[in-house]
User: Fold this.
Amino acid sequence: MSDFRPRLRGNKKRLFENFTKDENRVLVIGDNHEPFCLDGYLDFCIDTYAKYNCNKVVFIGDVLDNHYASYHETSADGMGGLDELELAIDKVHKWNRAFPEADVLYGNHDLIIMRKAQTSNLPSAWLREYKEVLMTPNWNFTEELIIDDVMYIHGIGSKAHIRARKNFMSTVQGHHHTEAYTQWFVGKKEKFFAMQVGCGVDDSSYAMAYGKWFPKSAIGCGVVIGGHTAFNVMMDL
Assistant:
């Protein structure tokens, strides 16, 4: 029996061509604050990666929570430093198995340990790289990233729409857990977008108690295609 190969026509053909076009299709993963990430968020991101045929992954920052080392009050009932770190590494390994190659932006929670080292006047030469501690050899940790003229940054301080308008540049960022949106700005000669990707945190965890009176976290991720198309994908809860 000869192989049956259906011939695509019309919209189905155009859809296939768009989904197989040689361009960057970036999955942007929101703050996950391991080990305090929401159950199911990893599977949601895996499904989103497949659904939109992504070929590149960016973690927008705060991969770790580092609650035990916070400059603010920590929970008296929480885990000690070693227990939290070991559990976080175990959970990060699951992300690493799903996305073995990724760009990872430093978030303010990720950098708590670096700040503690500075507070203790500890030279940076004593510190190991994040990829070594987390055992993620093909994750590229960086403060800022540009792909297809789109800036990716964790976003401490200003929100995405403010930063995008200030730089006249498409901008994707996290940090603000309760917001998820994509907003376009169009002028006579320029157009660019701003994306807040949402997050993947578990609001019920003790590490998120500081946001007890905040609006509910926006659980989702983002997709950016070729720098020209951007949208949020929200997780069903």
Summary: The radius of gyration is 19 Å. The helical segments are 10-19, 41-51, 81-98, 112-119, 130-134, 160-167. Residues 66 and 109 are 6 Å apart (CA to CA). The chain has a mean pLDDT of 91.
